Amino acid sequence: MKSAVQLEQVSKTYDTVQAVKEVTLTVNQGEFFTLLGASGCGKTTLLRLIGGFEIPNSGKIWIGNQDVSRLPAYRRNVHTVFQDYALFPHLSVFENVGFSLQVKRLSRDEVHTRVTDALKLVQLLEMRDRLPSQLSGGQRQRVAIARAIVDHPDVLLLDEPLSALDAKIRVELREELKHLQRQTGISFVYVTHDQEEALALSDRIAVLHNGELLQIGTPLAVYEHPVNLYVAEFIGRANFLAGVLVQVNGKQGQIKIDDQVVTGTLAAEISPNSAVKVVVRPENINFTAEATSDTACAAKIIQSQYLGYATSYLVEMSGLEFHVLELRRRGATPYQEGDRVFLSWEWQEALIFPATSDN
């Protein structure tokens, strides 16, 4: 598979702060690739390095087969969509989208064809004569995206483009973005702190923390097989239980938590009698009114939130609190606050990490 972007041991330092630390990664041609992490993790700096707005202190960056490590932004066939749209307020939608083509002195017919095609892709052709002030936030972001793709870039960089929109519009535009990427075949490099957004959009996700690359993988791999406790906590909701590993049988481990014994899958090599943390997702915990196995744990529901498609519970067990998500089943009545239940999970659904494996 051909690469659209390659970073090799790329680092960037501002004064005494190392924003990016020896990051190596590859974005495949035609891939929707997401840089995910909390504020200050280095994801926007990485995007700016790829776009040419920053120059790395060390390492190399390729766009296709070209080493662009020292090339300025205007000499890279890369375009960026920003959170704040950056549209010209005095130009119409059509003029905004076609601005870069006019700067390149393309013929009027070529400009008209390309801009029309781009506006069709983002479903804004009928608004071609409006000014940005006459558009909604979602429509302005569509204009910004059309302006970025009209010049047929090798790579499109998107810096949290949906974060300023309300939740409903964000979800709608998220679906359109993925469809647009598939239609154009352009490689997208997308920056977000929103884990749900990353899981929904991406072919692959790179998780960053304190300037370091922790894990790259498909959404499924990153969610179900996090490399450490930080990734497990950052991607989705999870329950974390501290205990001692008392027995190992292949990949299965038994953990003692106070007077309870639970099971899970070893996510790393861990010796018996080691302090560990067990990670189990809310949706992987089963509820029953009676104990169904030796490892089922007695618990009490202390909070219940009906969500329509599911019910979210907060459950107390031996002084520990669990979040549990039970999908809606037609005809089933959700448990009520105060109900006594038993918790259990398949051992393959819980991950066991060394207690210090959090970074």
Automatic annotation (TrEMBL):
UniProt subcellular location: Cell inner membrane
ABC transporter domain residues: 5-235
Pfam families cross-referenced by the UniProt entry: ABC_tran, TOBE_2
Entry annotated with the keyword ATP-binding: yes
Main location: membrane
InterPro entries linked to this entry: AAA+_ATPase, ABC_SmlMolc_Importer, ABC_transporter-like_ATP-bd, ABC_transporter-like_CS, Mo/tungstate-bd_C_term_dom, P-loop_NTPase, Transp-assoc_OB_typ2
GO cellular component annotations of the record: ATP-binding cassette (ABC) transporter complex
Membrane topology: Peripheral membrane protein
Keywords for the protein's UniProt record, in alphabetical order: ATP-binding, Nucleotide-binding, Transport
Gene Ontology molecular-function annotations: ATP binding; ATP hydrolysis activity; transmembrane transporter activity
Nucleotide-binding among keywords: yes
PANTHER family linked: SPERMIDINE/PUTRESCINE IMPORT ATP-BINDING PROTEIN POTA (PTHR42781), SPERMIDINE_PUTRESCINE IMPORT ATP-BINDING PROTEIN POTA (PTHR42781:SF4)
The name this protein goes by in its record: Spermidine/putrescine ABC transporter ATP-binding protein
Species of provenance: Chroogloeocystis siderophila 5.2 s.c.1
